[in-house]
Amino acid sequence: MAASSVLSSTSNFSEPVTDSLKGRVALVTGGSRGIGKAIALELARNGATVTFTYNSNLAKAEEVAAEIRTMDVECLMAQGDVARKEDARRVVSSTLEQFKRIDILVNNAGITRDHTLRKMTDEEWESAISVNLHGTYYCTTAALPAMTEQKYGRIINIASIVGQTGAFGQANYAASKGGIIAFTKCIALEYARDNITANTVAPGYTGTEMVEAMPADVLEKICAKIPLRRLAKPEEVAKAVLFLARDGDYITGTTINVNGGLLMF
Ligand code: NDP
């Protein structure tokens, strides 16, 4: 299989802007690149007001903000390291100051720091857990009081197939993503009475910069094991998020797998 046939991060969505999320305010962490960018654009394309965050790459974030503004929806771009609780809380409070509510929270920001346990440093363990798991906790707990007051909230946490299967050389990442899946179920149980749902989207291998940087032969071997024989497009992960945010009123505590059939259960 040619490498180009398994790479698929280029946006190919040309659907018209709809207003199905008009009046809803969304916060997407790590919305400046990859999957988070596709999610921010998909929610905006459907009429949501969107705050998205970035950590270090201002230029990429500005590109996303410019694209959202062409859709004639309001948008706030916010810098913040989700692993720092004060940053996470500031991003949520800026959203509330500007837009007065927060309906949809997508905890997407995530990193890998791969090494086998024999070689993994404490710093690598801690940074993956801090960004992926602590970041999800900080943003969620910052947003929950407003959602509780509104009696409405849709929390969607981006985990990974690796949080379900484990992966060689990714103990820190797998633990953080497995933790997100369990954390999400607890939110679902504790906040159902407030009309707040919490679900996880677990992507498989997805064509973002990180994955596309892998050697072509490695990617081909990975794709050979995927029943659909290709990587996910970020936009395909975003579609699952849109479904939960817009149509998932009676879905809570579950995980939607977007993995091309790589893991079925
Ligand atoms: P990318 O590396 O392409 O993008 C990561 C995004 O997160 C960027 O916007 C980045 O901002 C932001 N970010 C990184 N660190 C922080 C931080 N400390 N605080 C706030 N924002 C941060 O990642 P992907 O799009 O590939 O992945 C997105 C999510 O999907 C992650 O949670 C990842 O674990 C998950 N996932 C990805 C898969 C894949 O195959 N790509 C598969 C399964 C799950 P900046 O550029 O400014 O640093």
What does this molecule look like?
With 265 residues, the chain is of the alpha/beta class. Helices cover 47% and strands 14% of the residues. It has 10 helices and 7 strands. Strands 3-2-1-4-5-6-7 form a 7-stranded parallel sheet, with helices on both faces. α2 crosses α10, α4 (85-99) runs parallel beside α5 and α5 (122-150) runs parallel beside α7. The site of NADPH dihydro-nicotinamide-adenine-dinucleotide phosphate has 31 residues, from α2, β2 and α8.
Task: Note the topology.
Layout: H1 3-6, E1 25-28, H2 34-45, E2 49-54, H3 58-69, E3 75-79, H4 85-99, E4 104-107, H5 122-150, E5 153-158, H6 162-165, H7 171-191, E6 196-203, H8 209-212, H9 216-225, H10 234-247, E7 255-258
Parallel strand pairs: 1-2, 1-4, 2-3, 4-5, 5-6, 6-7
Helix pairs in contact: 2-10, 4-5, 5-7
Bound molecules: NADPH dihydro-nicotinamide-adenine-dinucleotide phosphate.
GO molecular function, one term: 3-oxoacyl-[acyl-carrier-protein] reductase (NADPH) activity
EC number: 1.1.1.100
Enzyme class: oxidoreductase
What are the segments in which pLDDT stays under 50 over at least 5 consecutive residues? 1-12
Record the strand order, biggest sheet: 3-2-1-4-5-6-7
Overall pLDDT score: 94
- The CATH architecture comes to 3-Layer(aba) Sandwich
Number of domains: 1
The secondary-structure element order is HEHEHEHEHEHHEHHHE
Using the coordinates above, name the CATH class. Alpha Beta
- Under CATH, the topology can be stated as Rossmann fold
Radius of gyration: 17 Å
The number of helical elements comes to: 10
**End-to-end CA span:** 28 Å
Organism: Candidatus Sulfuritelmatomonas gaucii
Family: Belongs to the short-chain dehydrogenases/reductases (SDR) family.
InterPro entries: KR_dom, NAD(P)-bd_dom_sf, Sc_DH/Rdtase_CS, SDR, SDR_fam
Keywords: Oxidoreductase
